[in-house]
Amino acid sequence: MKVSVIGSGYVGLVSAVCFAEVGHEVICVDIDRKKTEQINAGIPPIYEEGLEDLLQKHAGKKLIATTDYEFAVNKTDISFICVGTPSAEDGSIDLSIVRAAAASIGKTLAKKEDYHVVVVKSTVVPETTEKFVLPILEEASGKTAGIDFGVAMNPEFLREGKAVQDFMNPDKIVVGAIDKRSGNLVSELYRTFKCEVTRTDPTTAEMIKYANNSLLATKISFANEIGNICKKLGIDTYEVMEAVGKDVRISPNFLNSGAGFGGSCFPKDVKALIGKAKAIGYPPVLLESVIAVNERQPLLMTEILQRKIGNPADKKIAVLGLAFKNETDDVRESRAIPVIAELLRLGARVSAYDPMASENMKRIFPSIEYCSKVSDALKDAEACLVMTEWDEFRSLDSEFQAMKGKTVIDGRRVIKAKNIDYEGLCW
Fold this sequence. Notes:
The chain is α/β, with parallel strands linked by helices. The chain has 3 domains: 2-200, Rossmann fold (3-Layer(aba) Sandwich), CATH 3.40.50.720; 210-296, N-(1-d-carboxylethyl)-l-norvaline Dehydrogenase, domain 2, CATH 1.10.1040.10; 299-424, Rossmann fold. The protein is built from 17 helices and 14 strands. The protein has an 8-stranded mixed sheet, sandwiched between helices. Strands 11-10-9-12-13-14 form a 6-stranded parallel sheet. Helix 1 (10-21) packs across helix 3 (51-58) and helix 9 packs across helix 11. It starts with a strand and ends with a strand. 48% of the residues are buried.
């Protein structure tokens, strides 16, 4: 099939290269000409494991990029809206980019004779596709959804760092369509996948995405709450959760205690669902507590630090790990951000190291010291806070001996070194 993908961020570009990999012809659309030039040259503008290999394989063949909406929509059968939906201060999502994309597609549909399906893949709260996107498409095109063109919602369930792997080997594929014809065409894209396609309506598909991420975030905050209690009782929370996770009703996934969750999905999606719930008159007490636990969790690192070394003012404190998780350079909602902010508020001198995310963190904290090696970050530091579970941190040992003090506070349970003053966040 012929597919156009609007937006070339994490979801858009991963979807585009993976659709090309299974045999579809794909046109990426982005308003950023530099991005389209990079994509056409086989250079991904973002880092994702396996993405560069696939892009180089298909760029200029099964996949091209353009800034021209009209060209892309006219040359394809299905258009995926994969643009960003940033959070507003109240937690609600900003739909201005979705609006612009839908309007641009609609204007092209006004002149297109062939049937075309518009699919929302951006994460949007329930009712957005049918009550927001669909009317914009009808107004811009002068046509009727369900008759002249199709509309569907196809949420993504991709982990950053493993997005290509997740797309190609999905646990679930959800297609929510306004009618059978739209649903059939979108489902046909996934015909070669072994995973069953769950068919539903757009609003239910949107809710599946939010319920999915909110439950995973809840498991993390639950594990952290239990971990905090276990620490006060002198219990190894990892031993507890290992046993709890053996229950087939629970599973061991997302039960590791630590500094909390970050990234572009969990915090944003839980807050958006909280906002939607309040808008329809329901107080989402559990979801609000999930966020409250997550926001408090990283600051426990600085509380432990002060208990161990006293006032950190004018002391060098090393922060290892800046990305919100390993295998990505994404710092959005990284748990290192509130920790570094608090260290700076307390007057500490911060030295930081991350194998991939330093450049992105410089936009948030331009004045702290960024090191190209772990040893440089640790040299003469009074203490070290570990914020991301990079594999290279697991083998650290003698490097800690270069510290002035030997206090290591581990937020991810990755440090195995001896001869240090070690303390885990929840263990």
